[in-house]
Write a structure and sequence with these properties.
By secondary structure, the protein is an alpha/beta fold. The chain is built from 10 helices and 12 strands.
Length: 313
């Protein structure tokens, strides 16, 4: 194993790049703009240029670089072929082959959520476990599945789309994916706000301090629940039921050692974890009942850690 590797987390606005020692130490992280004009034709070249500049700046021998890993916001097949990334303007092409052509280094790529899960397994909340499911609870609900220390991508790179597990049949509003009743519609940061507003509108007799606000966020709902607001507590429990049931279903398929919970909503901490664990225990198959629940630790750097792990696997 060579001494250094680079990890790139490609987002729609910026690309986060990390220089690592291959033993797992992050040396430096920086960002460059994501130039999506002309169908994203400049993105890989810009990453290549940024890495070459860093190699010169740090006086690193190219012979000491193991390669470049990339997290990509879209489905990607096991051979490194991107199957369209709408946010980047990319169509279908082999991103690994193109990056190797630009840099001369070995390149590996994966879906950004899967890559973040790999990073958490390697150096974050899932450290010490080889079989984890990471779930990100933010504006939406995403995820990644790691089995035997490796990403489980699925045939089209779409494994781990946990937010689109169907949960309710009577939902009238559409999810962003076009379906109705997806987990993301209820258990995301936006989802719990939507659930709470719907509950308070349908039950005007229920008292809640949330009614005193013109608008509120998921963070405020959890804060009010912690203070004993009954409506907020009920909504946190409702989210716990839905996530507990979804996780129990996932565990029946992949039987992970641990669920790692990340995303902005995970900052609620134990009040969220306790609600999930309570209902997971109710729904889980007995052989999966002792699955561990952990909070993610790497925040928005999980992607670059996982990208490097892809290279050194």
């Amino acid at each position: 194993m060579k001494k250094y590797a680079f990890g790139a987390d490609i987002g729609g606005t910026t690309v986060k790049i990390g220089l690592f020692e291959t033993i797992g130490n992050l040396i430096e992280v920086w960002e460059i703009p994501t130039r999506t004009e002309e169908n994203g034709k400049y993105i890989l070249a810009d990453i290549s240029d940024a890495i070459e500049s860093k190699i010169r700046e740090k006086n690193i021998s190219r012979l000491d670089v193991e390669g470049i890993g990339m997290g990509v916001p879209g489905p990607i097949s096991p051979d490194g072929t991107v199957l369209k990334c709408v946010n980047l303007g990319w169509g279908i092409f082999n991103v690994e082959r193109e990056m190797t052509k630009l840099t001369g280094f070995k390149a590996k790529a994966g879906n950004d959520a899967n890559v973040a899960a790999l990073g958490e397994m390697w150096q974050g909340g899932g450290r010490g476990y080889n079989d984890i499911v990471m779930v990100t609870l933010g504006t939406g609900v995403g995820g990644g599945v790691i089995i035997g220390g490796h990403i489980l991508p699925g045939i089209n790179g779409a494994a781990g789309e946990i937010g689109h597990i169907p949960m309710k049949d009577n939902e009238m509003e559409c999810c962003g994916c076009g379906k109705k009743g997806c987990l993301e519609q209820y258990a995301s940061a936006n989802g719990i706000v939507r659930l709470t507003k719907r509950y308070l509108d349908e039950n005007p007799e229920v008292e809640s301090s949330l009614r005193m606000r013109e608008g509120y966020t998921s963070k405020e709902i959890f804060a009010e629940a912690a203070q004993g607001d009954k409506a907020a507590m009920r909504m946190v429990d409702e989210v716990g039921i839905l996530l507990g049931k979804a996780f129990a279903a996932i565990a029946c398929v992949v039987n992970p050692e641990a669920f790692v919970i990340g995303g902005g909503m995970s900052k609620a901490g134990n009040i969220l974890l306790d609600a999930i664990k309570k209902h997971y225990t109710e729904y889980a198959f007995h052989a999966s009942g002792d699955t561990v629940f952990k909070l993610a630790e790497l925040s928005n750097r999980a992607g670059i850690y996982g990208a490097v792990r892809l290279v050194i696997e």
